[in-house]
Design goal:
Number of helices: 3
Shape: elongated
Radius of gyration: 23 Å
Distance between the termini: 56 Å
Number of strands: 0
Strand content: under 5%
Oligomer: single chain
Helix content: 55-70%
């Protein structure tokens, strides 16, 4: 719940004094943090740019799907 509004942008510690967190919002925030952590463990980023062979394979795959 918002208690006050600030006139300017400031540090996080100052911003934290401007609102009051309810138990429901805290629970929702914690659930979201758990979900984000789980998704981050599943995601494996690409190793960089595709090689020429990778590009050819992708082109072949797109051609096969388009037919």
């Amino acid at each position: 719940m918002v208690r006050l509004l600030s006139e300017r942008r400031g540090p996080a510690a100052e911003a934290a004094t401007l609102y009051e967190e309810t138990p429901a919002s805290r629970e929702a925030r914690e659930r979201l943090a758990v979900q984000i952590r789980a998704e981050r463990q599943i995601y494996t980023p690409a190793k960089g740019r595709p090689t020429k062979k990778d590009r050819r394979n992708l082109a072949r795959l797109k051609d096969d799907v388009g037919s």
